[in-house]
Amino acid sequence: MIARGFHIERGGRAGAAWALAAAVALAAAPAYASSATLGLLAQVFAYIALASLWNLLAGFSGLVSVGQQAYVGLGGYCLFALTMFAGVPPLLAIPLAGVVGAALSIPVAALLFRLRGAYFAIGSWVMAEVFRLLASQISALGGGSGASLPIRVVAAVAASRQAREFAIYWASLALALLVIGLIVWLLRSRWGLALRAIHFDEAAASANGVDVRRVKFVVYGLAAFGTSMAGALIFLQKLRISPDAAFSVNDWTAYVIFMTVIGGVGRIEGPVVGAIVFFALRLTLSDLGSLYLLMLGVVAIAAMLKAPKGLWGAFAEKTGFEFAPLGQRVVYDNQTGKPAAAAGGQGDKP
Description:
By secondary structure, the chain is mainly alpha-helical. It has helices spanning 13-27, 35-61, 69-85, 90-112, 118-135, 151-157, 161-188, 190-200, 202-207, 212-238, 243-246, 249-263, 270-285, 291-306, 310-319; strands at 6-9, 147-148, 240-241, 329-332.
């Protein structure tokens, strides 16, 4: 009998252990971090979720959207409407906003998927502008000037201000972990193989039996679901919403693209690294006024020239370390780099 002499493994156990330790430490942050730090970390987690979802669309599916602010704003407005008019508890309104976003993404996707490449990107931005104009016509939510959450809604989050800060922090952390976990699970499944096939060659993927339209619908719907939840959480933290703030292409798409490109497009860890770099730059350079945006542009150009695959992509190529590897590798049982020879075959002595 011929022994295989090798086995297949995914690896990444050390990375998973580090990620778990980081998640536990972050979950315990309210015990040792200040109120300002918790608020900043909640923003970072929300942006990590947004950037990871954009990376799922652009980095793994080839759907380069510049209109995801449509779902950020939609999630925020759903939160305000559900809590103010339907009496839904704020934390419960967050997943409900995600459901609304996923439902509305179906007709939106049916229109956008008629477009390809740059036309798809432009179409997604136009659709976001349509959402913004519609929101500005809702007089019950302040029209073009916006609205603030009533005190009764804010108090429904938790009894005290500190408890509200803790609740929003944990909700933001949970959303970021949920989004990353869902993306890892999706990309390790057969859906992930289909996504990569579509990304590299849509026609070839279709010819090999991949239902391209269905896969795109599912991924776009998942991205809309998560982005709407992130939007609801962001504006629950802000306590005020307006059409210009909710559907800002600069805040919710340009910055998200910056994070993903800096960290590494098509990498699970890329948006996380990019978000950390972005907020570090913002804290360092925000006092420079308009030069702040110029410096961000310089950093982005330098990173793309020196590390085309992003900061994490360059690091992973040199070290081989990944927190969440998507592929598998062959590990030989002997040390020769080749499968073992016969073991217990015919003619062997007992």
